[in-house]
Amino acid sequence: MTAAISTDPDQKGWLEIDITGAASTANGGLGEIVNPEGCTVGITRAFFYFTTGSTGAANLDVGIGAVTTKSSDICSAMDVVEATVGGKFIYGPAAQVAETECPTAKWTTTTYLSLTGSATTVGLVGKLYLEYIRL
């Protein structure tokens, strides 16, 4: 998993994260990223773009928490099977949240963004775009 940061002088930015499936179902098994800003940020929007879904029946949890901890405050049990995700933008956090609501994820300097698969996510390829503001 790689991440690229794009910031501007208005105290906000975007983070682009490559997502690659794996057989691991461990907490944070698809990757963990330490806060790149050096200050607390609030996640305001999250978008997923998958070019290829997983070959197995798997769900994806994405959130902010302690290292090696499963969290789902950005995305909870999102279906990432090939037939349902190929080439689609999916709004987050958590499919249940309406687009008019803001995510509640607060990313401190001591917490991590973690990605966890419920089953093997082998074959999954995509990107996660996070918009945030510095708090």
Q: SSE layout and pairings?
A:
Elements: E1 3-8, E2 12-20, E3 31-34, E4 41-52, E5 59-65, E6 75-79, H1 82-85, E7 88-92, E8 106-107, E9 112-117, E10 125-134
Antiparallel strand pairs: 1-2, 2-10, 3-9, 4-7, 4-8, 4-10, 5-6, 5-9
**Rg result:** 14 Å
Outline type: globular
Tell me the helix content.
under 10%
Q: Structural class of the secondary structure composition?
A: mainly beta
Order of helix and strand elements from N to C terminus: EEEEEEHEEEE
User: If classified by CATH, what would the architecture be?
Assistant: Sandwich
Describe the structure.
With 135 residues, the protein is mainly β. The chain has a single domain (3-134), classed as Sandwich (Jelly Rolls), CATH 2.60.120. The protein contains 1 helix and 10 strands, in the order ββββββαββββ. The protein has one helix at residues 82-85; strands at residues 3-8, 12-20, 31-34, 41-52, 59-65, 75-79, 88-92, 106-107, 112-117, 125-134. The strands form 2 sheets. Strands 1, 2, 4, 7, 8 and 10 form a 6-stranded antiparallel beta sheet that branches. The chain has a 4-stranded antiparallel beta sheet with strand order 3-9-5-6, with no helix packed on it. A hairpin with a 3-residue loop joins strand 1 and strand 2 (12-20).
Q: Quick recap of the structure?
A:
The protein has 135 residues and is mainly β.
